[in-house]
Amino acid sequence: MQIWTETHTLQAIHPIISTILKPGDLFLDIETTGLSRSRHQIYLIGIALVVDNNIFYVNQWFAESAEDESCVLQEFSSFLQTSEIKRIITFNGNQFDLPFLLARAKFHAINLTFDPFELFDIYKEVVRRKQILQLQNYRQKTIEQFLGLFREDQFTGGELINVYEDYVVCPNEQGKHLLKLHNYEDVLGMMDLLEIFAYDSFFSAPAQVSSASIQSYRDLEGNTCEELIAALTPPCELPGCLSCTHPITGAYLHASGMHVRLRVPLFQGMARLYYTDYKNYWYLPAEDMSIHKSVATYVDKSHKQKATPETCYSKVAVDDAFLHSEKLAEYVTHVLQGFLLS
User: Quick count: other Cβ atoms within 10 Å of Cβ 103?
Assistant: First the structure.
């Protein structure tokens, strides 16, 4: 077994990362010879432990042969028991890394538990936001590419299984370097992945509208349509380049860095203010709007129908006075928060 240790200073990190990271945060990633907990083994465990606001260190435990797996797990278990760890952060660790570690520890009769720790799975949280991000897939490397993060390692974990098997038969520095690098960048990359949660602060914060206008355009059928276009200033720089359309409201947003542009469709000079709790509303077709069930009680059944996500809205007149009032920022805030809830 080999153990590699490095100490790092946090430098030039995204502001959102500094608000998320806390002393005692542990980033964890494992490398295995396959996906089966009963038939395959762990050959590398990597961690990055945040010591304080500026320092973290990386540990990697490497099994040079199948016989080393028990030693690697024992060292890792001892590390968990003797270190100041409060939260374990993984990428798909709830489904893969943690159950795999527990199964292999049980196989070797090693005492290992994650019960004392808070668990945070980046993959799980990012997938919850897929309606906004709309990425091709949600693998770690795909998210890193979206965020514009550089990675020296070009292999997948699956591709490195053969590299490890060759190393066990004939140890060599090149193979060891590739195995170490992949795990090392997986662990450190998780820290940088936290940048993606900058979008949470943007969508949930009160909107800062720098300019707004009403513009006309012709749709594919040649009809004249209108939309509200607003330029926004986010609370912090947004990573990557995001373009998304809300599936219900039709609002379209494009964001990159400190530049955000929002387009909202208008209907005869009116903007729709959608509500997510549509089950508490009734839709009035004649008025083309929904009202709360407490008010709808007084409306004849022939004039109302149960609201759906698509019909649960009231209407806001968008004119020059609206564009120069506080109501504009309030409305845009409501639209942005709708992206989080979609």
Answer: 14
